Each structure stands twice: as structure tokens, then as C-alpha cells.
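note to self — DONT lose this again. spent like an hour looking for the file last time. sequence + predicted structure for the chain T wanted, 304 res
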Amino acid sequence: MIRYDVSTVCPGHNFDITGVSYIGAPLSGTAVYITRKIAAKAEMLTEAEHCLVFAENGVALSESLRKKHAVIYSDHPQLDYARVALQLEEMQKKEDALYKYHLHEDGYYVSENAHIGAGAYIEPGCLIGHHVKIGKHAVILKGAVIKHAQIGDYFLANEYAVIGAGGFTMTDDVNGDKFRIPSMGGVKIGSHVEAGVHNNISRGSGGDTVLEDCVKLDAFVHIGHDARLMKNTEVTAGAIAGGYTVIKNHAFIGLNAALRNRIEIGSHAVIGMGAVVTRDVESGLTVAGNPAKELTKSKIYNHI
């Protein structure tokens, strides 16, 4: 397990952190950041212990939180967090380098510490990364890449699907230049899930990107980091879900729809073809257009 000595950046706090997490769901022993924009989430830290907290100047933290966590105030909390995350990422790479990839007799590469359940069918040209776990009876077709993922039974990855790629999260450095925030989370996928041709399912930034049971993704779908797709979500070709998006049970996302990050799509909602969704959508609603507007209540939802 990787470990980062907090006393190197915050003297007087003698504990280690082992990863990063999101302030909306902080985990003990991780680094997090808080900007003034999301300062209301600071009290979530009461549920965690021994975090390294980078807080923007002006964010008020209670005395009890300052005692239980190592708090560093800064004008650039995302950047300071990103620098620590970068060090953790380098530690993880060194640890991962201890494991080797092997070329399977069927023509795909697999890490020596990956676990693939019984009855799997994997075509040539695939790559199964370190620490990956895949349940029984998976079908993984040519060119698929799976990293940083824990996957249930009866999973289907169509041709050239990528599961566990790094998310697209940036901040500015002190010179105003773009600085990538490393993705340190994973992907958790339930059973009977389908990833379409050329899907990109990003790993979580701090937590996990989650696809629950029976989620179905069509071709050329992008799922952003830390998104959560609940049971029986259906996402059709070309649709995009931004980071931290929540899509609830039985929602339908139409062709080429774009969902803004950090919004929630309610259960049994229908997002029309080409819709640009910039705010939460209530359960059972049908929306369409740019920006998306309400059309009607779903007939299915009215009979629940």
C-alpha cells in the first residue's frame, strides 16, 4: 500500500495518507480539497479521520475539524492537492511496476495479479490491467482495455471499449498554465452490464465511477469521472455524461445527448436526442432541446 507522510507538508501532524478522495464523500486517511464554491460540503469531514485538507482561504472550518485533520489554507487548494496526488500517483506506478503483463495464448495481455472469473471469453488485442477483477462469464471483444476496475458477472465489453482511463480534471498553476489533476479512483461495475464499441468510462478522480447492475451503454458513449449510473440505465450512441453526474434507475439517455457535470437525472426520466442538459431533471420527466426543457411526464412513471 502506498503511504504519504503528512508531516512533510504539515509539520506537527504525524500520520500517513494512502490516497485521495472527494470532499462530498471523504475517506479517512486521504487528501481532499475544498474551494469556496463547495465550502458547504466541509462538514462531510466529520465522518472521516486523519485527512490532509487543502482549503481555499476564506473557507471556515470548525475547530473540531481542524483538530482531527491536517488543514492547509491556500489560494490554490486544487493545485496543492494535485501536487500531492501526483506524488501518490508516482508511488502507485512504482508499486504497479512490480507486477508483469503476460501474453495469454489467446492473444491478449493480462496482469499477473488480475482476476478473471470462470467462463470468460476474451479476444486477441485486449489488455487487462493490474488489480482488475472481473466476474464470471465475461465477454471482452477485440481491442478492449480494462484498468482500475472491479466488475461483476456477465459483463460485455464491445470492441475497443476503454474502462478505467484517466479523467479530465484540470487546475491552473501559479503561472496560469493548465495542470492535470491525477485520477486516483477506480471503476466499479455491477453484473449484466454492457459497454459499447469505443466507449470511454473514466476512472474516478478521488472516489469511483459506478455502473450498477444492468446498465447498458451503446457505441461511442463517454462516462465522466465519478459519475454514477444506477440500475437499468440505458445510454444510447454518442451520449456524454460529465463528471459526478448521477443517472437514476431506468433513465433513458437519447442519441448524442450531453449531460453537464454534477447534475442528477431522475429515475424513469427520458433525455431526448441531442439534448443539452444543464440542470437536474426530475424523475419521470421527458426533456429535449438546447438547453433541455420539459416536454411531459413519462407515461411509465405515471403508472408506478
